Amino acid sequence: MAEKVPSRPRRGRPRQAEVARLAGVSQTTVSLVLGGNKQGIALHEDTRARVLAAARELGYVPDPAARRLAAARNNLLGVFSFTATFPTAVEHSYYPFLVGVEQEAAAQGYDLVLFTGSSSGGAQAHEPGALDRVRLADGCLFLGRHVPDDQLGKLVADGYPAVHIGRRDEPQGLAWVGADYVAASAHVVRHLTELGHTRLLFVREDDDALASTDRERGFRAGLARYGHQDRADDRAVVVRTSRPEADITPEWVRTRLDEGVTAFVTEETDSGAVWRALQAAVTEAGLDVPGDLSLALLGSPPADLATAQSPTGFDVPRADLGAAAVRLLIAQMSGQEHEEPLVACAFRPGPTTGPPPGRAPRQDPEAGG
């Protein structure tokens, strides 16, 4: 049972999220109870009583507009993308998500409504009230690294069914599906240390996107478990850059090699800016990969840089995540119990990693098959 959170004075209309916190239940359960449980879902009488008591204590009154929308089910699922253009091109990194979404929606008997999001010429996602239009659909899936938390939080607080593909922390109560970047990133570090690398450097974009943070957590966890870097050495194992093209130069790479770094690890992002800059700098410096240094990418390269042989890293199961998001959204809409799945990423061996110069791969007694 979730911990019961005491109510606090607030301004404005109490929301279902507050009723859920006070009653110690999920927001889906609150919506189910206060909506009269028209779906006929089995609920314990004590649960129903706690929800009603919490609603009375807070003075909750249903939003009539939201109630009208809730009654007007039309089997439409929304998809809102926070990208410059809607990701319908096959080479776009979000496209496989949409394949999984479309296939699962069709299998479940739903149609899709695509919202322009941040597309040029469309309603900008960060403008006040821009997300209100998704209420045309019964529920909505959201894609993107950077989301306006205030607007998305209002949808969640109003009880509108919403699922984000990849997001986990903000706003409170938002359902999500995500990939296990922590475990996958640690696996890549393990692979590098088994090859004999003792000085690894993780280079990432300078932002606070959760996908980037998870990858860094996994990188550090991998070093702690498998690495042999001197813990007394205060040289950074993680470098952030807001200007990869300017900061990652041939001279920068050579300086890191002189410091003892033999493997560079970076992340997949929408732009792939760090991976692009690393590859360009290494090529311009005349260095051999993996003879002089190893490169690993936590995710997949941008489509225009993809080759027949992909770099060492891992693959994100995008289509599976899209399908899982649809199932989670439908469960939320129907008042069923649901959970946020964390999907494993498959390790991808590649030609961009090998033993450091002059060293052979080490044998790890913990290494499995």
Describe this structure in words.
By secondary structure, the protein is α/β, with parallel strands linked by helices. The protein has three domains: 16-62, 434 Repressor (Amino-terminal Domain) (Orthogonal Bundle), CATH 1.10.260; 74-178 and 318-344, Response regulator (Rossmann fold, 3-Layer(aba) Sandwich), CATH 3.40.50.2300; 181-316, Rossmann fold (3-Layer(aba) Sandwich), CATH 3.40.50. The protein has helices at 16-23, 27-34, 45-58, 64-71, 95-107, 149-157, 181-195, 210-226, 244-247, 250-258, 273-284, 318-333; strands spanning 76-81, 111-115, 139-143, 162-165, 175-179, 200-205, 238-241, 263-267, 294-298, 312-315, 342-343, 346-348. The strands form two sheets. It has a six-stranded parallel sheet with strand order 2-1-3-4-5-11, sandwiched between helices. Strand 8 (263-267), helix 11 and strand 9 (294-298) form a beta-alpha-beta unit. Helix 1 crosses helix 2 and helix 5 (95-107) packs across helix 12 (318-333). The longest helix is centred in the middle third of the chain and has 17 residues, at 210-226. The two termini are 40 Å apart. Mean pLDDT is 81; it is low at 1-11 and 119-123. This is LacI family transcriptional regulator.
